[in-house]
Amino acid sequence: MARREIFAGNWKMYKTHQEALDLAQGIRAWTTTGIGNREVIIFPPAPYAKAVAELCRGSRIDVGMQNMHFEQEGAFTGEVSPPMVRDCGCRYVLIGHSERRHVFGETDDDVNKKVIAAFKSDIEPVVCVGELLEEREKGLTNEVLRRQVEKAFTGIGAGRMKKVIIAYEPVWAIGTGKVATPETAEEAHGYIRKVVKNLYAADTADSLPILYGGSVKPDNIAGLFCMANIDGVLVGGASLKVDSFLEIIRVK
Ligand code: PEP
Fold it and tell me: Probe ligand 1: pick from 67, 101, 129, 234, max atoms within 8 Å of CB?
């Protein structure tokens, strides 16, 4: 089955307002042609999301928020609600990024609440899963991935699952320069697809876009993207420059 091909950039906590606009403008200018059906999503820092979404309107680029709270509103100082994400013009939200899980202590339960909240506000979730190095070394990778996937989508029906994107991001590969080999990533992607197939139906699993994330660069994208179960990438560091992000998006 032909699946969506998605190239996403997570800008994390980088860029000033003007730098964010310049980066978005540069990506917009170079993705008008030559990318076939590939979809491009950028996740700017929250304060710039609205301006970047406005700049990208009518282009090939969609915008997402890097995180949000699961409550609709309330006394949650410093947080961003799902309706605010929509108000900013974001189609997507990143949920359960490893930095949220391991730096800010986000749990599988939080991830599930955020997935449910995203759908309530008509936002499409990009859900990150991935094992720690010690979990991989102990042979626990599949167990961790299964738990994270099962928990993330508890209560989510097959119809909604068709709007989900999963990003496999082994924690040991994020921002470390240690990219997973294409074979290692492919094995994990195949396993995630199997877990989704067991939870839903074969067609749901077959059409699910699964992105790889973790030290993706122009010089390693080709080996990853040619794997059968890798439908695109979620890029951190290399998405902060127009040239390197474009080289990745335009991989043959
Ligand atoms: C990320 O932030 O999701 C990521 C994969 O970062 P990097 O590409 O820098 O490893």
Answer: 234
CB neighbours (10 Å) of residue 217? 14
User: Per-residue pLDDT tens for 65-120?
Assistant: 999 999 999 999 999 999 999 999 999 999 999 999 999 999 999 999 999 999 99
- Give residue 234 CA to ligand 1 midpoint distance, Å: 7
Evaluate: CB of 237 within 6 angstroms of ligand 1. Answer: yes
pLDDT tens sequence across 114-147: 999 999 999 999 999 999 999 999 999 999 999 9
Q: Is residue 190 part of a domain?
A: yes
Domain contains 181? yes
For ligand 1, whether the C-beta of 42 sits within 6 Å is no
Nearest CA to ligand 1 atom 6: 236
Digit-coded pLDDT (tens) for 209-224: 999 999 999 999 999 9
Give the closest residue (by CA) to ligand 1 atom 2: 236
Range of the domain at 226: 6-249
Sign of the torsion formed by the C-alpha atoms of 154, 120, 190 and 212: negative
Q: What is the pTM of this model?
A: 0.97
In a domain, 91, yes or no: yes
What's the 107 CA to ligand 1 centre distance in angstroms? 20
Q: Which residue has the tokens 């240690």?
A: 178
- What's the number of domains the chain is made of? 1
Give the rounded percent of residues in the chain with a pLDDT score beyond 70: 100
Domain assignment of residue 1, yes or no = no
* Domain containing residue 197: CATH number: 3.20.20.70
